[in-house]
Amino acid sequence: MVAWTAESxxxxxxxxxxxxxxxxYWRVVLTNGLVFVVGTAALALSPAxxxxxVLLSEAVVLAVGLTVILTxxxxxxxxxxxxxxxxxxxxxxxxLLRPDARLPETGTGTVADLVRSFNAMLxxxxxxxxxxxxxxxxxxxxxxxRIAQELHDEVGQSLTAVLLxxxxxxxxxxxxxxxxxxxxQETTRxxxxxxxxxxxRLRPGVLDDxxxxxxxxxxxxxxxxxxxxxxxxxxxxxxxxxTREAELVIYRVAQEAMTNVARxxxxxxxxxxxxxxxxxxxLRVADDGRGLRSSIEGAxxxxxxxxxxxxxxxxxxxxxxxxxxxxxxLVPVRGDR
Length: 337
Fold this sequence. Notes:
The protein is about 65% helix and about 10% strand.
């Protein structure tokens, strides 16, 4: 008996949940329909409104009247509440990192005002998010610059001094000790190279000194030198000039894409290109690795999307038809450089 009661309660709770998950339009239609059916039944069974024994003609009239009422009710409610259902679906699917088309602002009345208010709210949220992201990324770049400078000036110079001291010690040490000192010297030299490489990744001086194409070429060379991935470059000549912010966004997106290739793709070859498409510049990083393994985007991809929005760019990441992953960033060329 207890088991039967518990099972019945679970079934009842399931029916309640399914009823709550119905769209608002259907909930109102069913509620009004139930009221109309009960009213019609009461009219049919009440001797005060119809014959004490319902005639066939009266039943037909009642059925036709009920059908007309239900149909009219459904049509009127659909016209009024369909926008609310669209608004509810949009609330569940909206992503501020992927600007989407706004809901159509048609009609008048409370529902139309609600849709217009929702669209305006999305615009404000996207604007505020873009502003806060710009400040956060600017602070991040400044911090990267500071850390890179300290690595280069403090740690780099200290390791250089250690190398000079080891060289002097090797010259004065006996042969047995000189062998160990040379091993320490090589380890220190490798550490210095790694510190310099990290400093370049944090703040690519070549980007400021030689420009975007040289910075991307240096990044490609660095990837090939430290992994087994072969990099093929394709930079179109005569690219339009870009703002400093746009160049930095393109570089950081390419850097994150190449890092993902080195860490996760298990690729043998990666293609990186920078071309012109109409009034925009397109960065493409495509590998022949194992492709996307999860539909959930990590912090790196979300960061790329945030950077793309800062310069009005469009970022797309998807699987290639012949295997692997393709990252494509389209950055419009602005005339107010």
